[in-house]
Amino acid sequence: MNGALSRTQLLARSAKGGAALVLAGSAAGTFARRAAADPISDADLAYARLLVAAELLAADFYDRVIAAKLFEGQALKSLKRARFNEQEHYDSVATILNDAGQAPAVAADIDFAYPKEAFASKGAVASLGIELETLFLGAYLGAVGGLQSSALKQPFAQIAANEAQHLSVFTGLTGRDPVGISFPAPLSVDEASDALDAYTS
């Protein structure tokens, strides 16, 4: 990993200053407006750092899937849309850190790792996609339950709903029913961080 950031350092990162993030579209602006009147606790900033790392992993994953050129038609369109969603999620969550005077992690800070042959076939991609999107969904659901700032709960729940849509795309690609369980499992910040360790360093 460039800069040798460990998982602990990534979660504890509180660098001041840095280049300001240019807000992309209305999503990041909405996050900023909702959070502005509600002070952000250290615990909530830890969630934001974790979810920034998750979004960077998501973006890298979708970039690799699209570059593998395994999919076409509606499947490819859905994957590209999911990639767009993940960028908007990143921009929005990174805004929380920027507004707190902390520099959010960027892709160059993280080395991404995937199972061997993860992008060699449609089946391998779909299986990994299910695993990752289940992680992302669980991380956001855990954040919704654990956040102290009420202003962030609804935006994080909205992102969780979108991650569930992504999960259904991959479930459908495996030929299974894209409609999942009634109550997806939330992950604590530690559980989500440990799960991210398998793919980031």
Describe the overall structure.
Residues 13-26 have low confidence and may be disordered. 64% of the residues lie in helices and 0% in strands. It has one domain: Up-down Bundle (Ferritin). It has 201 residues and is mainly alpha-helical.
Please tell me the CATH architecture by its name.
Up-down Bundle
Mean pLDDT: 87
How many separate helices? 7
Fourth-level CATH superfamily? Ferritin, core subunit, four-helix bundle
**Which ranges are low-confidence, i.e. pLDDT below 50, for 5 or more consecutive residues?**
13-26
Series of H and E elements: HHHHHHH
Q: How many structural units, i.e. domains? A: 1
Could you describe the largest sheet, including whether it forms a barrel? none
Helix content: 55-70%
Alpha carbon gap, first and last residue = 6 Å
Shape: globular
CATH topology type: Ferritin
Classified by CATH, the class is Mainly Alpha
Strand composition percent: under 5%
Structural class: mainly alpha
Supply Rg: 16 Å
The total count of strands amounts to 0
